[in-house]
Amino acid sequence: MIIAIDGPAAAGKGTLARRLAEHFELALLDTGLLYRAVGLKTLGGGADPSDAEAAVRAARSLSPSDLEGAALRSEEAATAASKVGAIAAVRAVMLEFQRSFARTPPGAVIDGRDIGTEVCPDADVKIFVTARPEVRARRRLKELRDRGVDAIHGRVLQDMKERDARDVERDVAPLKPAEDAFVLDTGDMDADAVFATALDFITSRDRSG
Ligand code: CDP
């Protein structure tokens, strides 16, 4: 089974993906981490993340050790990720890895921006997780502060809106719900309620199909 989870920044994709992967005993892939790693690697090489040649070089040379480290969770990495993610040639490099991960039995829960639309258009389940920007910024702020990172709400909200806009407006694999996605607004839900609603959707769909 392949479960595709997409949505904007800090909508709760990661938590839901982890819980579904545990529940269904599937592998888990956070594709945001891949783009964050390419973004940081490009920066680390002294280039601008919008520099297509440098970003493609970073994507091609990505190794498992690039996917470790606290810096990947920084807002700097998120911004760099959204810049390298707007480059078609970078996305092409990432595509095959993500597809072969998804195809490996028994399947996977994969979260990102374009999983239901581009990476796995045939996924068994597609969920688009979303919430109002203010709610998402509050969640991201808490996450940052819990990690000891000093941040202010206004700045987090602004960075997030800019990143969302870049993700929605880009030409290649823009952020949008797949036509057959279940849209789940998590604005007034805690993580348990989000999980329960998603599970309900998946099992009711199994019964009807
Ligand atoms: O954790 P958060 O939702 O804030 O971000 P993320 O999932 O780690 O993704 C960081 C950035 O990587 C996004 O804003 C996108 O620009 C890019 N990304 C993408 O283009 N395609 C994906 N499948 C996943 C992430």
Structural descriptors:
209 residues, alpha/beta, five-stranded parallel β-sheet, 9 helices, globular, binds cytidine-5'-diphosphate
Order of helices and strands: EHEHHHHEHEHHEH
Say how many strands there are.
5
Tell me the quaternary state. Answer: single chain
Main sheet characteristics: 5 strands, parallel
Helix proportion range: 55-70%
Mean pLDDT: 95
Any ligands, ions or cofactors bound here, and which? cytidine-5'-diphosphate
Q: Give the CA-based shape.
A: globular
- Secondary-structure class: alpha/beta
Residue windows where pLDDT falls under 50 for at least 5 positions: none
DSSP strand (E) fraction? 5-15%
Rg computed from alpha carbons, rounded to a whole number of angstroms: 16 Å
Distance between the termini: 14 Å
Query: How are the strands ordered across the major sheet?
Result: 2-3-1-4-5
Q: How many DSSP helices?
A: 9
Could you explain how this protein is built, in words?
By secondary structure, the protein is of the alpha/beta class. 55% of the residues lie in helices and 11% in strands. The chain has helices at residues 13-24, 31-44, 52-60, 75-84, 88-103, 115-119, 133-146, 153-169, 191-208; strands spanning 2-6, 27-30, 108-112, 125-130, 182-185. It has a five-stranded parallel β-sheet, with helices on both faces. Helix 1 crosses helix 9 (191-208), helix 2 packs across helix 3 and helix 2 crosses helix 4 (75-84). It is globular. The mean pLDDT is 95. It binds cytidine-5'-diphosphate.
